[in-house]
Specification:
Length: 333
């Protein structure tokens, strides 16, 4: 095989021929693929909408797509016109009118025209969600900020489905957008809410609770991942499964399987689907579809996306050496 990529539908039938050097997931009916002439944006029929002179492009979010050229990041609109020049060392995804960016020394925010909204000053800056964004600054207290004023303290994530991670001497829990305890701080570890359920750890095992703190799926797993389209990945130390919201499971991969992950959707081997169009990704390297499923470990990243799992806080919160805050969206001064 030639190591080329294409797309299959949910029935395993090739929908777009395997002709690309790389292939990203579909979002909003568009995907970026690597060709000999650059990075092209295609529709669900495989038609080329435009081609970018860049090394890499990322899925659209809130009408803008991030691209990388000469190691720097910029953004294009749905027609492929550059709206933010590639001048940033790192960048998150567009969300609620703002984009987190880094000048190489710190993270801040720009608007969709590229104008600076908040001067880079943070070590981590997440996408805006529900009018707020999660940031980290070295040493100090943990806080939410509304505009430039602290509205409550001791948070370790952004707002996801109306909840943010917090902790006290008894363990991890969640607060709501007003800073009130929504899920008691009694858990050894927690994940972010997904489709109304939350992965939490008790006595060394993971299960799922609802937003009221009630157990929905028993604590039997060594690893869990968030729900997407009604399914979540879970695993023991030897085997992995996809489970539904009732906890019913189907085997999907053993520890020795070659599996990979897309950012948004996690499905059993051979049934991985992309967000809006029901397409999977096929590689001629192995001659079969690849479900992109996570290996059982935590990841860290410098930026945090609602599309993927917010992961940057996992390691930092345990080290206790970062200031974590919310900044609510405000009108430009």
């Amino acid at each position: 095989m030639n190591g080329l990529w294409g797309y299959v539908d949910t029935n395993g039938i090739v929908a777009i021929d395997l002709t690309y050097q790389s292939a990203g997931s579909f979002f909003g009916g568009r995907a970026f693929v690597g060709t000999s002439s650059g990075v092209s944006c295609i529709d669900t029929e495989g038609n080329v909408l435009f081609t970018l002179d860049c090394e890499r492009a990322f899925p659209y979010s809130d009408g803008l797509a991030k691209f990388q050229k000469d190691g720097l990041y910029g953004f294009v609109d749905p027609e492929g016109a550059i709206v933010v020049e590639p001048v940033w060392e790192d960048a998150g995804y567009a969300s609620e009118g703002f984009i987190s960016v880094s000048d190489g020394a710190a993270y801040g925010y720009i608007d969709y025209k590229g104008s600076v909204f908040i001067t880079p000053q943070y070590e981590v800056a997440a996408e805006f969600s529900d009018g707020a964004a999660y940031v980290q600054r070295e040493r100090g207290r943990y806080a939410h900020q509304h505009g430039r004023d602290v509205i409550f303290e001791n948070v370790y994530s952004g707002l996801v489905e109306g909840l943010a991670i917090t902790r006290d001497e008894n363990g991890w829990g969640f607060v709501d957008a007003l800073g009130k305890i929504a899920v008691a701080c009694e858990w050894e570890d927690v994940d972010l809410p997904s489709e109304g359920l939350i992965g939490v750890r008790s006595s060394g095992k993971w299960g799922f609770i609802n937003k009221d703190g009630e157990t929905e799926i028993d604590f039997t797993w060594d690893y869990v991942w968030p729900f997407s389209n009604g399914l979540a990945m879970v695993a023991t130390t030897t085997d992995g499964y996809a489970i539904d919201k009732m906890g019913s499971s189907i085997p999907w991969a053993s520890r020795s399987s070659r599996v990979r992950m897309t950012a948004q959707n996690r499905f059993p081997m051979g049934e991985q689907r992309s967000a809006a169009m029901g397409f999977g990704v096929m590689s001629t390297c192995l001659g079969r579809r690849l479900c992109r499923a996570p290996m059982p470990m935590r990841r860290t990243s410098t930026t945090i996306s609602r599309r993927s799992v917010i992961t940057a806080f996992y390691d930092h919160r345990r080290e206790g050496q970062y200031t974590s805050r919310f900044i609510a969206r405000t009108k430009r001064p």
